[in-house]
């Protein structure tokens, strides 16, 4: 408790060496920079290391994408999986660029959150389809008897709507945060060197922490409510594998901002101010990407999608569908009920989940709904 109070006090500390709190303090330059390892400086070491980590993590994820694209038997689920795993190359690339181009790094830092927003929204849609893949999944998601009562045009349950919009808000808010950061930097009102409430930096950091936390909590709530139906899909590992990126990015950036802005960490003969405030958080994040790439490789195996009637589409179509995020961007307008109905129509039309013999399926041709017993197809999910 005392640690939290001290952190909060430092976060909103309004003290400054300047007599005018509305003036951004001059960045501390520190002593002349000397080589960090051998003959290279820390900045050179940092962008080399982040570049290597980016290459390694990208190669690992491209293997995952290739496997799903060439075994594209379930487009509704696998396009979401491809979007989720592509978070690693997105983060790794921007982390490298931020470290390499420190001068423009502050303009690029919030780009990471936009990638996280796309990934967590895709994950929510993936969880919805996992539930729908179970017998009686429509009723599990929209309430007992919803399918029998033909409630395809009615409102979604209150809990589902709350989760839906709490997660999807991260897409527009991440764009707003990115724009606000760039505008305030250009206007000279951002001031990353200070945690004073007179500058945009502190308010953007707090707002970013709130919207990120809301999105993560909402996904965890969905998992808690539907835990019984999601059990065959090893969802906990999936949650940890990519949400760790979102949580660590927010936490690490916040902690380093507090330490640098409050003067706890200062430039030295090895580190410039930009090395600490801009480069260090991104370097740490870049080094973590190969770890998360490994986790995602095991969290989203291609084995459940092999066999059956073969791919429903080719690799090029798979990539086009994955990069076409119009379904995510229109989620606010369509809402849970309409989007899920369209997902089911897409499943039936593309025959994306080959039906097993005697799987206990049933169809509603009037509404374009195909119910499937997908549990047998995923019996070996945890083992994979």
TrEMBL record:
<dbReference type="InterPro" id="IPR005178">
    <property type="entry name" value="Ostalpha/TMEM184C"/>
</dbReference>
<feature type="transmembrane region" description="Helical">
    <location>
        <begin position="45"/>
        <end position="69"/>
    </location>
</feature>
<keyword id="KW-0812">Transmembrane</keyword>
<keyword id="KW-0472">Membrane</keyword>
<feature type="transmembrane region" description="Helical">
    <location>
        <begin position="112"/>
        <end position="132"/>
    </location>
</feature>
<dbReference type="GO" id="GO:0016020">
    <property type="term" value="C:membrane"/>
</dbReference>
<feature type="transmembrane region" description="Helical">
    <location>
        <begin position="81"/>
        <end position="100"/>
    </location>
</feature>
<dbReference type="Pfam" id="PF03619">
    <property type="entry name" value="Solute_trans_a"/>
</dbReference>
<feature type="transmembrane region" description="Helical">
    <location>
        <begin position="163"/>
        <end position="187"/>
    </location>
</feature>
<feature type="transmembrane region" description="Helical">
    <location>
        <begin position="280"/>
        <end position="300"/>
    </location>
</feature>
<keyword id="KW-1133">Transmembrane helix</keyword>
<protein>
    <recommendedName>
        <fullName>DUF300-domain-containing protein</fullName>
    </recommendedName>
</protein>
<feature type="transmembrane region" description="Helical">
    <location>
        <begin position="199"/>
        <end position="223"/>
    </location>
</feature>
<feature type="transmembrane region" description="Helical">
    <location>
        <begin position="235"/>
        <end position="260"/>
    </location>
</feature>
């Amino acid at each position: 408790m005392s640690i939290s109070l001290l952190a909060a006090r430092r976060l909103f500390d309004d003290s400054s060496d300047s007599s005018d709190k509305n003036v951004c303090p001059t960045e501390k330059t520190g002593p002349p920079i000397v080589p960090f390892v051998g003959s290279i400086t820390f900045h050179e070491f940092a962008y080399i290391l982040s570049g290597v980590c980016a290459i390694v993590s990208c190669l690992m994820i491209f293997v995952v994408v290739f496997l799903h694209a060439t075994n594209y038997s379930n487009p509704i689920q696998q396009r979401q999986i491809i979007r989720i795993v592509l978070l690693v190359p997105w983060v790794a690339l921007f982390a490298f660029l931020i470290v390499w181009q420190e001068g423009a790094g502050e303009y690029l830092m919030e780009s990471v959150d936009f990638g996280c927003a796309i990934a967590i929204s895709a994950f929510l849609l993936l969880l919805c389809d996992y539930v729908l893949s179970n017998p009686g999944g429509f009723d599990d998601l929209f309430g007992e008897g919803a399918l029998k009562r033909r409630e395809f045009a009615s409102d979604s349950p209150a809990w589902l709507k709350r989760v839906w919009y709490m997660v999807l808000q991260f897409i527009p808010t991440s764009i707003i945060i990115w724009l606000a950061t760039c505008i305030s930097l250009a206007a000279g009102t951002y001031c990353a060197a200070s945690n004073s409430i007179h500058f945009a930096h502190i308010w953007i950091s707090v707002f970013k922490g709130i919207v990120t936390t809301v999105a993560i909590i909402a996904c965890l709530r969905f998992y808690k409510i539907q835990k019984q139906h999601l059990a065959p899909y090893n969802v906990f590992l999936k949650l940890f594998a990519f949400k760790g990126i979102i949580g660590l990015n927010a936490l690490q950036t916040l902690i380093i901002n507090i330490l640098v802005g409050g003067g706890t960490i200062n430039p030295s003969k090895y580190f410039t101010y930009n090395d600490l405030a801009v480069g260090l958080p991104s370097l740490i994040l870049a080094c973590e990407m190969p770890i998360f790439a490994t986790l995602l490789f095991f969290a989203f195996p291609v084995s459940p999608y092999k066999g059956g009637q073969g791919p429903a589409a080719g690799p090029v179509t798979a990539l086009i569908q994955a990069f076409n995020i119009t379904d995510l961007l229109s989620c606010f307008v369509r809402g849970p009920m309409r989007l899920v109905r369209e997902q089911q129509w897409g499943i039936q039309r593309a025959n994306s989940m080959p039906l097993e013999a005697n799987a206990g399926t049933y169809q509603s041709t009037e509404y374009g709904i195909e119910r499937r017993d997908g549990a047998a197809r995923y019996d070996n999910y945890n083992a994979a």
